[in-house]
């Protein structure tokens, strides 16, 4: 056998990751590198354990400075920590190494956590978590028998591990999957969550970590409920029924677990567990917040607990939609697939809406549609009658009508929301704003009210089987309108973010209550004025993505359209109808009107005047010549739809195209179902046209 030539023998290959870096071009950074960074990294590799420990501690102290941090990353500090510091014989060095990685993960972007994951950080976390588990569960010696210094080091490493796991979980879904698949890390988390004797800060970090990992995570939910070693689920459930910050955080974890396991009102889990059992604890956390003066008396931790409770309530309110669907509550058809008008003779070719069709680009269909457009005229009648609301107001200010026992058994979460949470949420929506904390609390309270109101507004209350839900929701919704919406709307607040939240909430309430909304005289004009203010708000900064369909203008239009629906008073319907038609007519000239507002106004017209059997059809739609104005507007809508770029605003473009198609068919249907009395020609028709024009000018 031949021998290997000596000149072919090579030394061990140098570590390709630990490559030498070039000095920075900035003189200041180059000086800092030479004087501070390189010496401390040299000490980190020193053979003496004491020098390594001191260097690791020093890096942990200086890594928060941005310039120092960038230089350390440039010098491959992560590689050094992973390969040398975390395997050091000194526990102090290892603790400092974990602290370095934690601070880097906190200060850098999420991509850094992905980088750590690809460097197999989970293996290092697994070994460290196992060591801590062994220390905590050891009997010889027992953890309680260790010195204070030894216990402190254990909790420092534990804190760093929890923070890293939390940040890794927030970075990418695949990392969450890998974490949950690691049984050692799960045992580590469950053991900490099931322990009552660990420091408060460590316990809160544990629950925060579990909250991140448990969101939409069936595997973790199953692992927690099946865990017989620590019985973590039972401990958290008992804790969630108590008081204090730990109880609120436990509610956050359990809400995610209930949601992932589909433990809903109609399919509860162990011992009837569902979100309803959490609402009482979350509501109690809100009761101690005063409506005026210092919100939290300077206690930042208390403010954080209140905000967390509000966030969990908001999440439960949003998830309640799935609960209602699972309970076979009838849902209305999506309005984007509008089919509120039926024409038996022309049902197939006149009223079936294809949501996938591209109207804006179909020239042949446009020609056919234009041939179908016709003109009609009508009369005008002006009167005002809003009605007396004092009796209803008295009911609103009283206690909410509770669900009866049967309804409470069917929908415990909605019942708990109405009876317990909503009164506190309404109170916090009107909290005195004297600090950033109080402003945040108000915003979170309105978000929670928005979520529950929109969930309920999606229920079709025309179905008799949903009457029990309406009866329970009715007094609570009226209280929200009177106690939360009206004071803020009438205050003419200049905060457009607050106005957007209030308009969204008002829209949801108006959708569910219809004509039973406790409007004060002329209150609808407040939303018209708010819409005018919305047009003049500054555009969002470049690079910030804003959904045009969630703008303040769209929501104001939605509120007004919902208030005008049958059986709204004729005069209220007429005033709102004229406003919407005026908005449509002026969209090509007034460039401050966003396309999303126009699309929403068209859809509201469909909803308001789609049924020719209502009194509004004859007295407003035809007398005010809305059909003629919509015919004139149709070419403008076609042109507007073509201006919307499909790439950044695909949803808006689709809605605009559908609005064009629906408007063509709406006009055709209305023409074939016009009142028999002639409405065109003569002096009267010209006079009515002049009156509407005068109203339109006044609206502008």
UniProtKB/TrEMBL annotation:
Annotated ranges, domain SYO1-like TPR repeats: 440-672
Basic and acidic residues: bias regions: 674-693
SUPFAM superfamilies reported in the protein's UniProt record: ARM repeat
GO biological processes: protein import into nucleus; ribosomal large subunit biogenesis
Pfam families: TPR_SYO1
GO molecular function: unfolded protein binding
Bias type Basic residues, positions: 1-11
Residue ranges the record marks as coiled coil: none
Matches recorded under PANTHER family: HEAT REPEAT-CONTAINING PROTEIN 3
Protein name: SYO1-like TPR repeats domain-containing protein
Originating organism: Triangularia setosa
């Amino acid at each position: 056998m031949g021998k290997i030539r000596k000149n072919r023998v090579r030394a061990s290959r140098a570590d390709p990751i630990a490559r030498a870096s070039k000095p920075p071009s900035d003189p200041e950074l180059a000086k800092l590198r030479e004087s501070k960074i390189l010496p401390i990294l040299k000490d980190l590799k020193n053979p003496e354990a004491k020098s390594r420990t001191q260097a690791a501690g020093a890096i942990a102290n200086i890594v928060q400075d941005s310039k120092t941090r960038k230089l350390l990353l440039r010098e491959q500090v992560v590689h050094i920590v992973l390969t040398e510091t975390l395997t050091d014989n000194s526990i102090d060095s290892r603790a400092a190494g974990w602290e370095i990685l934690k601070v880097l993960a906190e200060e850098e972007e999420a991509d850094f956590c992905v980088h750590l994951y690809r460097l197999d950080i989970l293996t290092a976390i697994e070994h460290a978590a196992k060591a801590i588990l062994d220390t905590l569960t050891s009997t010889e010696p027992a953890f309680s028998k260790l010195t204070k210094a030894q216990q402190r080091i254990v909790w420092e490493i534990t804190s760093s591990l929890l923070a890293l796991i939390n940040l890794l979980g927030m970075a990418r879904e695949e990392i969450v999957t890998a974490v949950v698949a690691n049984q050692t890390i799960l045992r580590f988390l469950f053991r900490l969550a099931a322990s009552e004797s660990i420091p408060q800060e460590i316990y809160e970090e544990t629950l925060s970590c579990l909250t991140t990992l448990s969101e939409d995570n069936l595997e973790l939910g199953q692992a927690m409920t099946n865990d017989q070693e620590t019985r973590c689920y039972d401990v958290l459930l008992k804790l969630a029924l108590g008081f204090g910050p730990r109880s609120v955080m436990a509610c956050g974890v359990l809400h995610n677990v209930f949601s992932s396991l589909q433990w809903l009102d109609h399919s509860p889990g162990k011992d009837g567990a569902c979100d309803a059992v959490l609402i009482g604890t979350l509501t109690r956390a809100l009761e101690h917040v005063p409506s005026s003066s210092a919100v939290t008396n300077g206690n930042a931790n208390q403010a954080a607990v209140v905000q967390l409770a509000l966030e969990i309530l908001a999440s439960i309110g949003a998830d309640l939609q799935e609960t209602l669907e699972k309970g076979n509550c009838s849902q209305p058809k999506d309005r984007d697939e509008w089919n509120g008008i039926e024409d038996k003779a022309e049902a197939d070719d006149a009223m079936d809406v294809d949501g996938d069709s591209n109207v804006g680009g179909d020239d042949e269909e446009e020609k056919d549609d234009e041939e179908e457009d016709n003109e009609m005229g009508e009369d005008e009648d002006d009167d005002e009658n809003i009605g007396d609301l004092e009796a209803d107001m008295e009911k609103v200010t009283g206690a909410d009508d509770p669900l009866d026992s049967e309804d409470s058994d069917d929908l415990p979460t909605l019942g708990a929301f109405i009876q317990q949470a909503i009164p506190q949420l309404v109170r916090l929506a009107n909290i005195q704003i004297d600090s950033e904390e109080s402003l945040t609390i108000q915003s979170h309270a309105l978000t929670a009210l928005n979520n529950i109101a929109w969930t309920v507004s999606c229920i079709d209350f025309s179905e008799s089987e949903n009457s029990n839900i309406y009866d329970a929701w009715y007094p609570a919704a009226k209280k929200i309108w009177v106690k939360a919406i009206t004071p803020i709307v009438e205050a003419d607040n200049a905060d457009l973010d607050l106005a957007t939240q209030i308009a969204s909430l008002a829209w949801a309430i108006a959708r569910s209550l219809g004509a039973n909304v406790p409007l004060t005289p002329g209150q609808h004009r407040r939303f018209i004025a708010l819409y005018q203010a919305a047009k003049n708000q500054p555009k969002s900064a470049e690079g910030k993505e804003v959904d045009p369909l969630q703008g303040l203008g769209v929501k104001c239009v939605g509120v007004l359209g919902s208030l005008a629906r049958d059986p709204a008073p004729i005069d209220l319907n007429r005033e709102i109808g004229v406003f919407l038609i005026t908005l449509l007519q002026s969209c090509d000239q007034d460039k401050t009107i966003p396309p999303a507002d126009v699309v929403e106004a068209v859809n509201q017209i469909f909803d308001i005047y789609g049924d020719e059997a209502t009194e509004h059809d004859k007295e407003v739609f035809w007398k005010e010549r809305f059909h003629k104005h919509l015919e004139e507007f149709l070419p403008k809508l076609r042109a507007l739809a073509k201006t919307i770029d499909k790439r950044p605003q695909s949803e808006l473009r689709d809605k605009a195209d559908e609005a064009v198609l629906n408007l063509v068919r709406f006009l055709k249907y209305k023409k074939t179902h016009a009142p028999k009395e002639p409405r065109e020609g003569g002096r009267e028709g010209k006079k009515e046209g002049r009156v509407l024009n005068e109203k339109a000018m006044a609206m502008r």
